[in-house]
Backbone:
């Protein structure tokens, strides 16, 4: 039995040499990349001032903070926190809707099957890339310069930065739409606008609605942080309480955010199921 | 063969038409109802977010003139007429940009490694202990729901100002986000290799290493690269709260109205993000072998 296995092995080696003796490049490739990645990682740790003392000191500090956080307690500021949370949800909802409304016409311009010429599509796409490359917090700072401190600046910041993301996602949804239904509308004598309205939109709208709902959910998270730079919502309260080391209030605020995000998550998942149908997602 | 269109008798046609109209009307009602609820929600939200269209239209000009101003030098000339003056601080800025990239690299790698270790406990098909599955899942959920900049705010107080707080914040947030994605990949693996390895008498660790990991590693790497891309954006604003990187310079120049500096730094960030997007996209394309 053993002898047979050995001859089999020799036979297999003779027939498939490339499986037994892989070229040096293939064998050394992965370890080299891993080593380079590790070296860069260690260089990063040194360059960014990591030291065992600092880590230990920081961890013991964090341990203290964690102890001081229990139990979560809003003190007397519960009404203020609830209204700040409402503000955050409003910012997310309004910002996302505005972004979707602005992005829909622009995404048509960026879709290959609507605008065949590269002349318009290319600049529109690069413009969307540029808008997307700037973080929501930076947009919030810019809008604060324009409309002043407060939640309205937050709405506009989310609207603009999501406009870039939606423009790209919508145009991709439009490009993957089926050509045949558009042709059907044209064959029955429809105009170009009819083609978009009756051939394209019925296919694209459910996808877009799903994406918008998903973004409302993720924007609830973004809306919690734009308050840090002064653009309204619960982030303002959170940043303040962290700075004055009111850890019980901080943990209460974080719990509020977790609950709110989970609730929005639940609602938007339900709505998405209702719009696209259960099977499309699962 | 001639096709004959046979018309239904009036009475039947009426019944069918009525049923059709009724169903259309019902759908229309539902659409109108949904639309009304959405508009009402938006109206409530508009009040909540203190939307003031008067201010908006009164000051929208500022928005465009802001972009006009950030593209002018102090002398009033357009920035591109004098690139040396525009990018006067390029050595400092490139250094900070490098620091930003390093923060996101170290943070992403640390987060990915942690997520790699944790995700097998959070995937339903490989979790060794049910209670551990629950605990790890909740832990990952908290890590990814709390935004990274909030972690940074806390870490800046605990670990002191500087890039270290930014790295740790990004690492924790990435652990949460990647842990979830990784465990979803693991839940979709083929379980037959696992049975094969187990039948040779291997323990749980060996099963994960030799049966699961080879199936999922390219997916893991792809998601980690995607996360790196997101984290570069995130690290560019870490400086807003004092956690290192180019954000510190940016917020100072925005707050102090150093207009041409704002455009120069923004341009550097956009170009960097763009280059990172393209290169990680290329690597991910090679990893997935054109499948995705």
Residues:
């Amino acid at each position: 039995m053993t002898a047979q296995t050995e001859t089999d092995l020799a036979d297999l080696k003779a027939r498939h040499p490339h499986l037994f003796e892989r070229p040096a490049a293939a064998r050394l490739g992965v370890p080299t990349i891993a080593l380079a990645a590790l070296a860069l990682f260690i260089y990063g740790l040194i360059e960014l001032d990591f030291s065992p003392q600092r880590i230990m000191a920081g961890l013991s500090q964090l341990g203290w903070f964690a102890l001081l956080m229990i139990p979560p307690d809003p003190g007397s500021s519960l009404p203020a926190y609830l209204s700040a949370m409402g503000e955050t949800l409003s910012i997310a909802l309004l910002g996302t809707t505005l972004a979707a409304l602005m992005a829909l016409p622009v995404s048509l311009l960026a879709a290959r099957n609507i605008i065949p010429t590269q002349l318009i599509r290319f600049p529109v796409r690069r413009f969307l890339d540029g808008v997307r490359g700037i973080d929501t917090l930076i947009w919030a700072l810019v809008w604060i310069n324009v409309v002043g401190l407060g939640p309205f600046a937050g709405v506009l910041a989310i609207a603009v930065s999501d406009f870039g993301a939606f423009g790209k996602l919508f145009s991709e949804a439009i490009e993957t739409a089926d050509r045949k239904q558009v042709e059907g509308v044209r064959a029955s004598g429809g105009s170009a606008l009819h083609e978009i309205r009756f051939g394209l939109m019925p296919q694209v709208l459910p996808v877009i609605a799903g994406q918008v709902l998903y973004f409302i959910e993720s924007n609830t998270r973004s809306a919690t942080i734009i308050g840090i730079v002064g653009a309204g919502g619960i982030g303002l309260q959170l940043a303040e309480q962290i700075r004055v080391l009111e850890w019980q209030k901080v943990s209460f605020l974080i719990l509020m955010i977790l609950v709110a995000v989970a609730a929005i998550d639940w609602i938007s998942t339900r709505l998405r199921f209702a719009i696209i149908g259960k099977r499309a997602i699962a | 063969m001639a096709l004959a269109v046979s018309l239904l008798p009036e009475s039947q046609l009426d019944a069918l038409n009525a049923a059709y109209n009724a169903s259309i009307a019902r759908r229309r009602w539902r659409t109108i109802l949904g639309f009304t609820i959405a508009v009402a929600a938006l109206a409530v939200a508009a009040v909540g977010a203190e939307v003031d269209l008067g201010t908006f239209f009164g000051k929208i000009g500022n928005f465009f003139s802001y972009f006009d101003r950030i593209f002018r030098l102090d002398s009033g000339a357009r920035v591109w007429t004098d690139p040396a003056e525009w990018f006067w601080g390029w050595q400092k800025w490139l250094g900070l940009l490098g620091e930003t990239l390093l923060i996101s690299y170290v943070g992403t790698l640390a987060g990915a490694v942690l997520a790699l270790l944790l995700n097998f406990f959070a995937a339903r098909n490989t979790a060794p202990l049910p209670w551990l599955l629950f605990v790890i899942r909740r832990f990952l959920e908290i890590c990814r729901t709390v935004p990274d900049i909030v972690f940074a705010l806390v870490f800046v107080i605990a670990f002191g100002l500087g890039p270290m707080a930014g790295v740790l914040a990004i690492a924790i947030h990435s652990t949460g986000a990647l842990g979830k994605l990784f465990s979803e990949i693991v839940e979709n693996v083929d379980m037959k290799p696992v049975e094969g390895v187990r039948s040779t008498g291997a323990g749980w660790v060996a099963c994960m290493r030799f049966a699961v990991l080879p199936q999922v590693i390219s997916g893991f790497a792809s998601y980690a690269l995607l996360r790196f891309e997101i984290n570069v954006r995130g690290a560019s604003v870490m400086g807003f709260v004092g956690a290192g990187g180019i954000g510190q310079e940016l917020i100072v120049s925005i707050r102090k109205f150093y207009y041409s500096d704002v455009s120069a730094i923004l341009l550097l960030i956009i170009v960097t993000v763009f280059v990172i997007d393209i290169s990680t996209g290329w690597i991910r394309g090679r990893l997935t072998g054109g499948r995705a």
The mean pLDDT of chain B is 86. Chain B has eleven helices and no strands. Chain B touches chain A through 59 residues (CB under 8 Å).
